[in-house]
Amino acid sequence: MDFICKIAGQAGAGVMVTGRMMAKCFTRGGYNVVGYPEYPSLVRGGHNVVEVAVSDKDLRSPRQRCHAVIALNKDAVFYHKDTVEKEGIIIYDSALDISEFKIPKGVRTIPVPLMELIEKANGNVKMKNTVALATALALVNYPFEMLAGVIGDEFGRKGAEIVEKNIAAAKEGYEYIISQSGEFPHRLKPISEKRKILIAGNEAVALGAVKGGMKFYSAYPMTPASSILHYLFAHERKFNILVKQTEDEIAAMNYTVGASFAGLRSMTGTSGGGFALMVEALGMAALAEAPIVAALVQRVGPSTGMPTWTEQADLRFALHASQGDFLRVILAPGDVEESFQLGAESFNWAEKYQLPVIIISDKFLGETFFSCERFDESKVKIERGKIVDKLPKLEPNTRYKRYALSKDGVSPRVFPGTPNGMHVGTSYEHDESGFSSESFIMRTKQVDKRAAKIKGLLKELPAPKIYGPKSADVTIMCWGSHKLPALDALAMLEEKGIKANAMHFCYLYPLDKDKISKLVGSCNKTVMIENNSTGQFTGMLKEYCDVKPDFLILKYDGRQFFAEQITEQIEKLAKAKFKGDAEIRICEKEDLEYYNPQRHGL
Amino acid sequence: MDSKDFDVKEKIQWCPGCGNFGLIAALKGAMADLELKQHETVVVSGIGCSSKLPHYVDTYGFESIHGRGLPVASAIKLSNHNLDVVSVGGDGDGYGIGVQHFIHIMRRNYNLTYIVHNNQIYGLTTGQASPTTMLGAKTKTTPWGVVEEPFKPLTVAINGGATFVARGYVGDPVHLKELFKQAIEHKGFAFVDVFQPCVTFNKINTYPWFQKRVYKLENNDVTDKWAALKNAAEDEETNFEKVPIGVFYKVEKPTYESTLPQIKDKPMVEQDIENVDISEAYNELE
To answer: Number of folded domains in chain A?
Structure first.
């Protein structure tokens, strides 16, 4: 049984919090839940929506269409009425006049006198969202106690009176709908008592980093990466970590490098524009061989772009950021479990190979919240690589050879405070002890030393994973967040009689030519999906692995691919017997932007 | 302990007569007098002539990128507050490209020392105007004379929240060493602006120029902000007839590190990272 419900209203009206509460109610009942927020870059005035998708079967990504809309304002009816399935329901505040809108056939509207119900419960206008949330749960006959519990947790810190009043108001909304909703095909009961968690990609990366021993995080606020910073600040004392909001991203990356030099597992996080400011110090981390981790949560670019929308167009930027030749590792989690694991694991790659690691994700994965099991912490291993803490006495006035040439390219680090380890960590090309050097021979040797690390990395980095049947007529190739709609599309394609599987890349750089070309070569038809306009990863595969997917589907309108869109495109290709243009560009069909409701006459 | 303990084998590569020599001698002397442990001291810099300094002091060091010594130094101090951290740089590095870090570090009062080699010119890039080049001075980038108001590091620092503000002059090395000692010993952000003539590119602010103008502040009330500001503005107000050096301002305030319960018992670098317990996090996520 699926239930897809949108809760929508004006920016600043608390839609995000209410959406998350709804998702929590169903998560606690054992369902698979996705809570997908969409909002413009406005604190007040634009339109906000959270889609809560609930299923007792596999469900990993949001859907284009829904079964119910809870409209907190008039705009919400306008924006979402045409996405409601037949027999679906739009619940709206009866104080609103929605007569000007043409409601699709078969969709019912239920006006709810929100303020009246609140007054009955002696509540106040702030409780509108709680009552609206209750109506959604009543619609599917979900037990009221589940909501009461979530209200208690959400408002608990505001005191018992607030909790009780919210529960009373919610009860009014709940009963009202029970008496009004009539036949609604979606009825949900809790299906399991096993506790699951509800977490967004950004928080999962943050929690993984903490589990992985991160002790220092410095960043400057930037959508959609800020929730990493918020989460870590909220928990800095509980987890005993240092979190610093710096004056800008330049400082943030430099702090990260400083903390690394001092001996901590350190990390920063930002989106494309902030990463642009970090680029110079990223190169410093590489030259100084200071292990650092940077979370790059992509949004639509270039420049300010569309700050609250999603894209996968910063991959080439991450790959080439900063001047000079140097090695880095790029990781791209595909879901919240991988966000957690890579959040932890990233420090092992950084420290073992003494280089920068970039975790590339996006607004879609970073800010969407998903139900899941508690993370598998048994997989988290701390591997710090070569570090020395005891050293023989040096001759007076000589330095420790921090950058000693070595076959694997890795020379032991030593941290300030360690006797006999004095040396200079440096952004300047240097000799083995870190002293600035412009010797042609030493320069060549140091470049080769740093580059030699790629051998170990290629041996260790896992290959892309295949999901679905081992062999299939068509393989959907994807990276990062697009594992989610791609895997959902597999089930949809199966229903249509198309045998498909998916190849997902978590480890984007360096790429192992032998492993990957063999894997891609073993597939029948291959279709890459990328959420950008140039096929950045497709280009990387060509360059580093000499493979080329048969088809490339691109989307770059600000939204990720929906599973339905992938299914539709693959179905079309299958019908055409996989003949036709190798490059396909798609875009959303409707064009109802949230930033300027007035453009739609609202 | 002897200042020679802080020497390195490599030859120092500054122009003969460069003010940096006096500065580094005073710094090593101060470190020796204070008996700083070499392995528990970190000297951090940006990029520039003066920023080569970490290579010439036998402690831990970090030579970062242009203008970024302070954020690197800040993080080193936060990560291991048992270390003595000294950040050095030039006037272009600190007052030009990296000025935002200077402004913001003062608001934080980390317990570290910041020394600016202020030679009022860009040296390593061969003689362009810096933020402290005097009005009217002709340089490669100001062929008709500087028209931009020079940056005023001392008044900015006194107003900006620095808890120790001083100025030295390399022509008085004994006085300079004492300033450095006070700065390193100060609990909080200690800032020392040091006049050190660039003998190659600055033909105005030369040793004789300073010799005529510099005088030592005495008996000034260093806790009086108004007096400090007045002293700091004296050079300009007297059309550089009188250029005071010494401690202008010094107050006690809690350091940033002292506000962090996470590092109250031991520095962050000494804390265990194996088996981090995150079970509490699940409660609020369920």
So the answer is: 4
CATH number for the domain spanning B235: value is 3.40.50.970
Going from the C-alpha of A466 to that of each of A329, A501, A516, the distances in angstroms are: 21, 7, 12
Chain B CB within 8 Å of residue A195 CB: yes
**Residue A280 contacts B, CB cutoff 8 Å:** yes
Within a domain: B266: no
Which position has the token pair 């140039």?
A534
Are A124 and A158 in contact by the 8 Å Cβ rule? The answer is: no
Residues 6 or more apart from A191 whose CB is under 8 A from it?
A29, A30, A31, A56
Domain end position, chosen among A350, A378, A406:
A378
Q: What are the backbone angles phi and psi of residue A516, rounded to the nearest 5°?
A: -75, -40
Q: What is the CATH number of the domain that holds A235?
A: 3.40.50.970
Q: Please judge whether A424 and B54 are an interchain contact, meaning their C-beta atoms are less than 8 angstroms apart.
A: yes
Q: State pLDDT tens for residues A191-248.
A: 998 999 999 999 999 999 999 999 999 999 999 999 999 999 999 999 999 999 999 9
- Which of A258, A424, A435 is the closest to B72 by Cβ? A258
How many structural domains comprise chain B? 1
Instruction: Indicate whether A245 and A391 sit together in one domain.
Output: no
Contact B75 A254 (CB under 8 A): yes
Domain that holds residue B68: 3-257
Q: Is residue A194 less than 8 Å (CB to CB) from chain B? A: no
Using CB atoms, pick whichever of A237, A421, A424 lies closest to residue B39.
A421
pTM higher than the cut 0.95:
yes
ipTM score here?
0.98
